[in-house]
Design brief:
Blueprint (H helix, E strand, L loop, with lengths): L8 H21 L1 H4 L4 H15 L4 H9 L9 H15 L3 H40 L3 H7 L7 H12 L5 H14 L4 H11 L4 H9 L4 H5 L1 H6 L10 H8 L2 H11 L15 H16 L4 H19 L5 H4 L7 H11 L6 H19 L13 H7 L9 H11 L6 H4 L23 H10 L4 H15 L4 H8 L6 H12 L4 H14 L1 H7 L7
Length: about 525
C-alpha cells in the first residue's frame, strides 16, 4: 500500500486547526455542559503542576503511577506532561486541562481523517473529517475530558492501521504504547499483532508498553488488584470471571447496543437502531476489499465492542464511553462506501446533522466562561471535587473571605448533592438529598470545630443552590442545633452579593422562614 502523499498534508493540517478551534470554543462556551470538572482532573492538574514546579521526586512519581487508582492508566503521565506544558501558557487552571484534551482530541481527528484519505481518497477524507469534527455531543463530552484514556486513546487505533504496512517494529511499538495508554485496547491490539504474523511485532509491543508501566511493575500486587473502573470490586480477575458467564455477557452486550451515534437531545434514541443497520450495510464492501486495513476497519471495532461488553463495568453512566477509541471507525464505513456510491455520504454526515441543533444551542449562551479563573489546586485542598464554572467567582469569594480558616464544611455542601448535567442528560433533582448533617458530624469527629463547619456549610449550600431559597431552607432544616451557625454562613455569603440580590433573597425567605429572614435583615435575634 502506498504511503500517504505529502500534498494532502496541508489541507489535513488546516482541518486540524479548524477542529482544534471549534473544540476550544466548545470548552470556552459550554465547559460544564460538555463534562463536569472531575476529581481525577483535579488530581491530574496537581501532578502536572508538581512536575512543572519540580517538586515531585521520581520515587514519588512512581508511587503515584503504582497507586491502585491509576496503575492501569499508563497515559496518566503523558497527559500530565501535556497538561504541565499547557500550564506554562495558562497557569494551573482549568484552561490548561482543556487545552491538553483539545490537543489529544485533535491528534485523534488527524489520524482518523488521514486513514480515510489513505483508504478512500479526498472525498472519504472530507466526509470523515466533517463527521469527526462535529460528533454527537456524547462523543464530544468525552473527547474533551482530560482523564480516563479517552481523547488520547482514540488516536491509537487509527495509528495502528496507518502503520499496518510499515515495519513490524513500528507497528508493535505503537500497539504496545496504545495498550499502555488504555488497557481497554488490549484485545484489538493483540489481535492486530497476531494477524500481522511477524515475530518482531510482539516483543516490539512489549517495548512500547514497558515505559508507561514502570509504576505497575514496581508494585505488581496492587496492579493485579487494581480496579478497571472506579468500583473497587471490579478488578481484572473479577471482571474476567464474570465475563465467562454467558448471562451477564449477553445482558451487557444488549446494553451496549445500539451504539449511541445519535445519543443527543436533538435526535430520538430509536434512530440508533436503523442507523446501526445501515452502518453495517456500508461496512460490507470493506470486507471484500483486498487491503488488510480496510477489512480490519470492520473486524476490530466489532471485536472491541464484544470485549468491552465482556469486561463492562455494568454501570449505565460509564459503559458506552469505553467504546470511544474505535467509534470513528463506524463513521469511516459510510465515508469509504461513498467513494463507490455517493448516497452513502448522507449516512456519513447524519450524526453530525442531527447534532447540529445541540451545538447551535451552545452558542446561545450569553458569554464565554473565563477558564483561567478556575484554580484546581485550591479547590482540591479544600475538598471540593466538582464546582460548576459559573459558580467559580463565589467560591473564590469564600476562599478570599475565609483564608486559612476555611473548613471542609463548604465542600460538604457540594458533595453528592449539587450535580449538573452534560449535553443530552436530564437536570438533576433539585431537592436536597439527605447526608449533609451526617457529613458535618463526621468532620466534627475528625477534629474540626462544629460551628465553623456549619457556617461554611451554610455558605456552601447557598452558593451550590444558586441562592434558590427553597433549596437552601430544605437543606439547612435537618441541621438541628447547628442550623443557626449555618444561617450565619448564609448571611456572610449574602454580604458578598449585590444589594438588590440580597434584598430579593431576604424578601423571598420571609415567606418560608421568617426568623431567618429577620436575622439576615438585621431585625431579629437569630434563626
Amino acid at each position: 500500500m502506498a504511503r500517504l502523499p505529502l500534498r494532502p498534508l496541508g489541507p489535513l493540517l488546516a482541518g486540524a486547526s479548524l477542529v482544534a478551534t471549534f473544540r476550544a470554543l466548545l470548552c470556552l462556551w459550554a465547559p460544564d455542559l460538555l463534562h463536569p470538572v472531575d476529581p481525577a482532573e483535579l488530581e491530574l492538574a496537581g501532578l502536572a503542576q508538581a512536575l512543572h514546579d519540580g517538586t515531585l521526586s521520581s520515587s514519588a512519581l512512581l508511587r503515584q503511577l503504582g497507586a491502585a487508582s491509576a496503575v492501569h492508566h499508563g497515559g496518566f503521565l503523558p497527559v500530565s506532561l501535556t497538561t504541565a506544558a499547557a500550564s506554562l501558557l495558562f497557569g494551573p487552571t482549568h484552561a490548561a486541562l482543556k487545552a491538553s484534551a483539545v490537543l489529544w482530541s485533535t491528534a485523534g481527528w488527524l489520524a482518523w481523517t488521514g486513514l480515510a484519505l489513505r483508504l478512500g481518497g479526498p472525498r472519504a477524507a472530507l466526509l470523515a473529517g466533517v463527521a469527526l469534527a462535529l460528533p454527537v455531543p456524547w462523543a464530544s463530552q468525552w473527547w474533551l475530558t482530560t482523564w480516563g484514556s479517552h481523547p488520547e486513546a482514540t488516536l491509537f487505533p487509527a495509528a495502528w492501521l496507518l502503520a499496518w504496512a510499515a515495519s513490524p517494529l513500528l507497528l508493535g511499538l505503537l500497539v504496545g504504547l496504545g495498550v499502555a495508554f488504555a488497557p481497554v485496547l488490549a484485545p484489538t491490539g493483540l489481535l492486530l499483532l497476531l494477524l500481522r504474523r511477524r515475530p518482531l511485532a510482539l516483543p516490539a509491543a512489549a517495548l512500547g508498553w514497558l515505559p508507561l508501566q514502570l509504576g505497575a511493575l514496581a508494585t505488581p500486587w496492587p496492579w493485579l488488584r487494581a480496579s478497571l473502573t472506579e468500583d473497587p470490586s471490579q478488578t481484572v480477575p473479577a471482571l474476567l470471571a464474570r465475563a465467562l458467564a454467558p448471562g451477564p455477557l449477553l445482558q451487557s452486550l444488549a446494553g451496549h447496543l445500539p451504539v449511541p451515534l445519535v445519543a443527543s437531545e436533538a435526535a430520538p434514541a430509536w434512530l440508533s437502531a436503523p442507523l446501526g443497520l445501515l452502518l453495517l450495510l456500508a461496512a460490507l464492501p470493506l470486507l471484500r476489499d483486498a487491503r488488510p486495513p480496510a477489512r480490519l476497519l470492520v473486524v476490530l471495532p466489532l471485536v472491541h465492542l464484544l470485549s468491552v461488553a465482556a469486561l463492562s463495568p455494568f454501570r449505565p453512566e460509564l459503559q458506552h464511553r469505553y467504546l470511544l477509541p474505535w467509534l470513528p471507525a463506524l463513521l469511516l464505513w459510510p465515508a469509504l462506501a461513498a467513494t463507490r456510491h455517493r448516497a452513502w455520504a448522507a449516512l456519513a454526515l447524519a450524526p453530525s446533522l442531527l447534532a447540529l441543533p445541540v451545538y447551535a444551542a451552545v452558542w446561545t449562551r450569553p458569554s464565554p466562561v473565563d477558564l483561567r479563573g478556575y484554580h484546581p489546586q485550591a479547590y482540591l485542598a479544600l475538598g471540593l471535587d466538582r464546582v460548576p464554572l459559573p459558580l467559580v467567582p463565589e467560591v473564590e469569594a469564600f476562599l478570599a473571605a475565609r483564608g486559612p480558616q476555611a473548613t471542609p464544611g463548604f465542600a460538604a455542601a457540594f458533595s453528592r448533592r449539587f450535580g449538573y448535567p452534560v449535553l443530552g442528560e436530564p437536570f438533576p433533582d433539585p431537592s436536597p438529598r439527605p447526608g449533609l448533617s451526617g457529613r458535618l458530624r463526621a468532620l466534627s469527629a475528625a477534629g474540626h470545630d462544629p460551628q465553623a463547619l456549619a457556617a461554611d456549610a451554610g455558605w456552601g449550600v447557598a452558593v451550590a443552590a444558586r441562592w434558590e431559597v427553597e433549596v437552601v431552607v430544605e437543606a439547612l432544616g435537618p441541621l438541628g442545633e447547628l442550623r443557626a451557625a449555618a444561617w450565619r454562613g448564609v448571611g456572610e455569603g449574602l454580604s458578598t452579593r449585590a444589594a438588590d440580590q440580597r434584598a430579593a433573597f431576604v424578601q423571598e425567605l420571609s415567606d418560608r422562614d421568617p426568623p431567618a429572614a429577620a436575622w439576615l435583615a438585621g431585625a431579629g435575634p437569630g434563626p
